[in-house]
Each structure stands twice: as C-alpha cells, then as structure tokens.
Write a structure and sequence with these properties.
- This protein has 563 residues and is mainly alpha-helical.
- It has 24 helices and six strands.
- It has helices at residues 2-22, 27-37, 44-53, 72-94, 119-128, 145-149, 158-163, 173-183, 187-210, 218-225, 245-250, 265-282, 287-296, 298-308, 313-317, 325-342, 370-377, 381-387, 410-418, 422-425, 439-446, 450-456, 524-530, 535-542; strands at residues 360-364, 401-405, 428-432, 470-474, 514-517, 557-561.
- A two-stranded antiparallel ribbon has the order 1-2. The chain has a two-stranded antiparallel sheet with strand order 3-4. A two-stranded antiparallel ribbon has the order 5-6.
- Helix 13 (287-296) crosses helix 14 (298-308) and helix 23 packs across helix 24 (535-542).
Length: 563
C-alpha cells in the first residue's frame, strides 16, 4: 500500500515538474486562455510576431504606407544608410558570426545527468545552485576572467566595471567575439557609430529616464542603426530604433506618403521606450530576453522558452534552432557595443564626437516647399533635412506641421514666412488615381509632363501607378512641382482636395444667368445635354477657350443659360 501511494506521489511530482519545464512562466496557460476567450481574435503570440515580421493595417481608416520611395534627396540618405547596415551584416557573415554561435561561457558545460522529475535530481540541483531546467541559479564569473578575456580592461575590477552600467553586463566568449569583430571587420563602421552617438544620446537618455528605464539602453539603438535616422534594413525596419511599420503603428508612430515618424529620433525613442517597458514586463524583468524579443518579436521568444525548456538566455543561445543566429547574437552584440562605447580608447578607438542636435520647434500652418523654408530661415537645405529626417517629400505635409529649426532661427523664420504669398510657398496639387486612368491622361489633364509626375513622386516604373495611389502633381511653371495653399488636404483622415483654386480656370468677373457647379464626371458635352444647349454656347458664355475648355474642374461654377 505504501509503495502504491509513493508511486502515485512520484507520478504527480513528475507531471508537475514536466509542466514546469515546458511552461516556466505559464505562457501555455495564458495562450490557451486567450484561445478560449476569443476564437476569432489573433493569439498574443501571433500578434507579437507581427510586430517585427509583418506590417498589419492600422485600426483607423488610414493604412501605413511604406511602399513608395521618398523624394530623391531623402531616398539618397535612406539608400546610403541601408548600404551601411548591409555592409555590417555581410561582415558578420564573413566573420562566421551569423552561422556559428560562439561559446556562451561557463554555463555551456552544466548538466545534472538525472531525470529532472526525480526527487534526487531536485535535491542535487538545489545543492549545485541550479534550477529544474539545469540553468544556474547563480553563476559568478571565475576570478580573473575579465583580464583573461579582455586585456583592454586590465586594472578595472569586475565589480567596478559592472557598476558603470545600469544594464546587465556579462562577459563571456560570445561578448568577446563581438568586441573583436567591432575592433577588426567592422572597425570603420563602428567608429562612425561612436562619432554619431553624441548626436542623439543626450536626448535619448532624457526620454529613457522619464520612462524609468536604464539609460544604457541607448546602445540598443547603436547596434540597430548605428545612430542613423535614415537607417533602413532588408527587413523594412527604419529609423534609429529600427521599427517595422506594424510595431511602430502600435506605439503611435505615423508612416504615410508625407512622413515616416520611425525616422524622427525623438518620437521613435518614446515609442522604443514604451515597447521595451512592455517587453521587460512580458519577460518578468529579464533584460536579455527583452532585448532578444526586440529583435525577433516577443512571441518568438515565448515559443523558444517553451520549446527549449529554459528561461535563461545564455542556455537558450547554445540550444536548438528555435531562434535565428541573428537573435542569439543580439544580446552579446549589445553588451559588446556598450563596453566599447564607454571605454573607447582602451579598445583602440579615438573618437571625434559630433555635437548634439539641438533645435527650436515652429509650427508651419500649411504645406511649404523645404527649399522655401530653408531660405526663409536663412539655413541650408541640408541642415533642414538633417533636423527633420522624417519628412519624405520636398515639402511639409499639408494641413500644418511642426518643424525643427536650428537654435536662433525661429524668429527670423516667423517674420519672413508671414511675407510669403501662398503661391510662393508651394506649387503642387494632389490626385488620387482612379481605375482606368493612365498616366498620360492625368498628365494631360493637369498640363504637365509624365516625366515630371514620375520624378516628383519618386516613381521608377509605370506599373507602380495603381488605382487608389495618391500622386503629387507638379504644376506648370513651378520649379519643383507642387501649388496649393490652404485647400490642400492630406490623407490622414481628411477629405482629399482633388482640385486646387490655382488650376481652376478663371471665370468671367461676373457670371449671369443660370449657374451650375461642376460635379465629378461632368464634361461640357454632358452639361450641354442636361441643359438643352450646345458646347459652343457654353464656351462663349463662360469665356472658355483653348485648354480651359478641356479642363473643367470639380467645384467650378459656370453659366449654363443667359438671363
């Protein structure tokens, strides 16, 4: 009888131990509960993966737009930064870092050798300082390991070294491998990153401090983008914190035809801080797992925890294929970047740091050519672009926009801007492509060339012009393309102004008789038929000759009968 009871208890203990192994943080139970509560809703895991891997539509009417190229000036910066990130990635491949995981240090060789459900194994694990998954409960680095692994840090006690950081810093073979990589294969690029770091670190640390996060998280932006606002990866992640559109929209960043706020250093830092806070909470305060989640998506990390039966990142790093090599290297890469960034000269980097990007903000009430803004503020176009990297077009978005200008230029800009006429600010209009509307017909309707429309919209192929796409139409006589003023509306939840007063044919000073307002689809022929008159009479009555007779505009008022 006693033996039977012992067997039952042993079985129960084994089952609970296996469950603890398979679901260390209860994520399975949480996923099951979510599945029961809403069969039609996507699971938390799926939604998490979507954050870094897909670009879901927003809940609002507007959908994120990352498909069109920027204007040539901005696109050139994007391509330059994208080439830098790609060069570093290829260097990692060449160095073997993305195919072979470096040793993860003293934890690699730990094993108990007994079934974890066995009570003897439990007692032995506790005595050895390990958990049920075999991961150490405490794993101090061996004495002298810092100096042995990194001669550059000789003379700095490990306690003092760790005290310099407010993020967890662990020294092992994987971290050392990336330090050597930054010192050799990626030296030129890493030197640029260090130089650029002071552009944004003061601002980023203020945001992180306000959000109650470790200030050294700024080095995550370093390994993500090299502190480049225009950084763009092969996975379509953009900006200093490398958001994909799906995740950025979850945290309030706008991406549309006019702006890409993922490239706004301040706004993107706020979004990244919120995302990192959520990741830290999701993974119970474990920053290593949170960083890995930032790279791969939190759902992927949760699955790895369940599949690999451990919540210890370093053990996860050396096990299985659940995580990609890029994710396994993400944590040691971040630690290595932080170590060098705080001790650059010890690691052979002599840095000429850039000055922080300081600016004054000014509200521009209407769409305005950036060249006009630069001239009005008496600054260079390049300086204006550098302070406002989120702008995708050669003008500010319609409907008003807050620009950043160099310190001391705000008052001059306000005075000079008030003197500008609407026609001096901008010279374009918008057009939404309808079904069966080829480019040549659009160009003819607005009196501009097809090449001008393609160039203004950064379009390289006619097949990119599809129904529903918004085109920016450069108007005749404009040096850069775009004429609108206060009537121009953008896509963010407001009605589209299909026509502008600047392109409406000027009517006679005084129209008499029966008047009619032109509606979509109207032509002189259909209007003449409706009011039992002729096209020639309508032309004479309204003074329509030449192009004016062929380009009626929606909203235009014309006379259809004499009194």
């Amino acid at each position: 009888m006693r033996s039977a009871i012992a067997i039952v208890f042993a079985a129960l203990f084994a089952a609970s131990a296996v469950r603890a192994q398979e679901d260390p943080w209860g994520d399975n139970a949480r996923a099951a509960e979510m599945a029961r509560s809403s069969e039609t809703q996507p699971s938390e895991t799926a939604a998490s993966d979507a954050g870094r891997a897909t670009d879901p539509a927003r809940e609002s009417e507007q959908k994120p737009d990352d498909s069109a190229d920027d204007d040539p000036e901005a696109q050139a910066e994007v391509e330059k930064s994208a080439a830098e990130l790609e060069a570093v990635r290829k260097a990692e491949e060449k160095a073997g870092l993305l195919h072979q995981v470096p040793g993860a240090g003293p934890r690699d060789g730990i094993s108990v050798g007994l079934d974890p459900a066995d009570p003897v194994a439990r007692d032995l694990s506790t005595a050895l300082g390990t958990g049920l998954d075999g991961a150490p409960l405490a794993d101090p680095a061996p004495a002298g390991s810092v100096s042995a692994k990194l001669p550059e840090l000789l003379g700095i006690p490990e306690e003092e070294l760790r005290a310099k950081y407010d993020i967890p810093v662990e020294l092992n073979d994987a971290v050392v491998a990336y330090i050597r990589f930054f010192q050799t294969d990626a030296r030129e690029h890493f030197a640029k990153w260090l130089s650029r770091s002071t552009r944004y670190i003061p601002m980023m640390r203020k945001v992180l401090e306000r959000e109650g996060l470790p200030l050294d998280l700024v080095y995550l932006a370093m390994i993500e983008s090299g502190f480049s606002a225009y950084a763009y990866s092969f996975a379509k992640a953009a900006g200093p914190w490398q958001f994909v559109v799906g995740t950025s929209s979850r945290y309030g960043l706008l991406t549309d035809f006019w702006v890409d706020e993922r490239r706004d250093p301040a706004k993107a830092t706020v979004a990244a801080a919120k995302y990192l806070k959520d990741l830290k909470a999701r993974f119970h305060g474990d920053w290593y797992l949170a960083w890995a989640g930032y790279n791969a998506g939190e759902g992927k990390i949760s699955r790895a925890i369940r599949k690999e039966k451990t919540t210890d990142f370093w053990r996860m790093m050396g096990k299985g294929r659940t995580l990609r090599a890029e994710t396994k290297h993400y944590v040691p890469k971040l630690i290595a970047a932080a170590l060098i960034a705080k001790h650059p000269e010890r690691f052979g980097f002599h840095v000429d740091y850039e000055q922080p990007r300081e600016a004054e903000e000014i509200r521009v009430p209407d769409a305005t050519d950036l060249h006009v803004v630069a001239k009005t503020a008496d600054i260079t176009f390049e300086d204006l672009r550098e302070l406002n990297p989120e702008l995708r077009r050669f003008c500010t978005p319609p409907g008003g926009y807050t620009l950043r200008l160099p310190p001391g230029t705000r008052e001059r800009f306000l005075v000079q801007y008030e003197k500008l006429d609407a026609k001096d600010r901008l010279s374009f209009t918008e057009h939404r492509v309808e079904k069966g509307e080829p480019l040549y017909k659009i160009a003819r309707a607005y009196g501009v060339s097809e090449a001008a429309i393609l160039r203004t919209n950064g379009i390289r192929n006619y097949r990119q012009i599809k129904p529903g796409r918004m085109l920016v139409i450069p108007m005749a006589g404009a040096s850069r393309g775009l004429l609108a003023g206060s009537q121009l509306e953008d896509r963010r939840g407001r009605a589209q102004a299909r026509t502008m007063t600047a392109v409406v044919a000027p009517a006679p000073k005084r129209l008499t008789g029966t008047l009619y307002t032109v509606k979509p689809g109207d032509t002189l022929w259909t209007i003449a038929a409706r009011f039992s008159t002729t096209v020639d009479k309508l032309r004479k009555l309204n003074g329509l000759t030449g192009r004016r007779a062929r380009s009626l505009q929606v909203g235009q008022t014309i006379a259809v009968r004499e009194t």
